Amino acid sequence: MKNKQYRELAVCGFEAVRALAEKHPEKIQRLFFNKDKARYFGDVCKTLAARKKPYKMVESDEELEKLTQSVHHQGVAAMIEEPVVPRLEMGTLEMWQREKARVLVLDRVGNANNFGAIVRSAAFFGITRIVIGEDDDQAQITTSAYRIAQGGMELVQVYRASSAAALVQASAGKMLRIGADHRAKRTLSDLRGMVGGSQGVLVVMGNEESGLSGEVRSSCDDLVKIPGTGEIESLNVAQAATLFLYELSLL
Prior knowledge:
Blueprint (H helix, E strand, L loop, with lengths): L1 E2 L4 E5 L1 H10 L4 E6 L8 H9 L4 E3 L3 H8 L7 E6 L8 H10 L2 E5 L5 H14 L3 E5 L9 H7 L7 E5 L2 H7 L4 E6 L5 E2 L3 H4 L5 E6 L8 H6 L2 E4 L11 H14 L1
Parallel strand pairs: 3-4, 6-7, 6-11, 7-8, 9-11, 9-12, 10-12
Antiparallel strand pairs: 1-2, 2-5, 3-5
Helix pairs in contact: 1-6, 5-6, 5-10
């Protein structure tokens, strides 16, 4: 939930707030927790007091529900400044090329819960760079995404591009561009043989309903699918991303 008056975003969920408090306490502007969770946040309360920032043990969970607009607060809510996702500059893309980086790109992944789950998997496997588009149907960093990421937002850097298609086109000759597509001929097991140790890789995951856009599909160097029995056409995008992220972590 965004608080337009204060330009804040509510971060809730025990693991999400605990990771925020441990790794980036300076981001917290206000902190609220119930009696059960008070013992976990003593250190950050001291930090907030030193910064003259408010914190409070709430009398009832209804106050947390009001702050977060969610019943899934898990007893704690931190208010942070509304996140500003940095734009991916050409210099950063060139640095990724030199570093042989492994990068995940989301092409209009529209569900905030899916986005959060992808961030969690990326953090788990150590893939620390994700790029999202500025498209209207691309999920952004929200209260729900933070909660589902279970602390992953503190370990992954999210960048923005005008669109996934524009990024894939701009990275021609700089990174190997792999699209996840259930209609592809190559399978996930082929990925390691496709990627040389001297090149960076972009893996692009498509929209939940329509998959990769036509522009992205035609601009990728290759397409890869996750093979199944064929009884179900494809996995949920967050599940599919987890498998691709695992493979990326091994390259």
